[in-house]
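Suppose a colleague, Dr. K., hands you the sequence of a protein chain of 182 amino acids and asks what its three-dimensional shape might be. Before reaching for any lab equipment, you can write down a predicted structure in token form. Begin with the sequence itself:
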Amino acid sequence: MSRQQVLTCGEYANEPDSVASLLAIVNPAHWLVMQEVHGWMLQPRLDTNGSGRPQIDVLIQPTRALIEHGWRWGIVGIECKKSATKVGRVVSQAMDYTRCVWDTPNGFAVMSRFVFIWPCEPPKNDLESVMVQHRIGVAHPRGRDAERLSLWFNGTIAYADNGDANPRVAIDLRGGSKQGSR
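The predicted structure, expressed as tokens, is then:
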């Protein structure tokens, strides 16, 4: 059985280009954007020495308008990578970010319910399962000219910007139904 590598998509030569392309399509009517936000880990990995502070590329906070359209998932993080980057290490980085508290520029400490990887199309099979278990989704451009943002989690569109029309917002984003000990 051959395993196909999952890579980030798009045509971004470097990470700053990737971040710029994301910021260009974030709808300001739906999201407040915070860039390069530092945080601290609630549960550091055992194999680290604790030096340095994590920094996520983008946190987006829903506006009142988006909340009124049904968004109930709070602030979410987006980690940006250049195109053709292997997704495995990015997923590991995003897993760390799901255990972070972020110090926002307005002085609040917040946790993000989800972390999305940009630009990446929804994966399949084992990788998708690992991502779902850790509340990691993908973000990629949509629309004829790739001018709108789409956030996916567990094969579901969590958010899709529809331009002047109302956004598409998921009612439920389940990551499995098992709870407790197994």
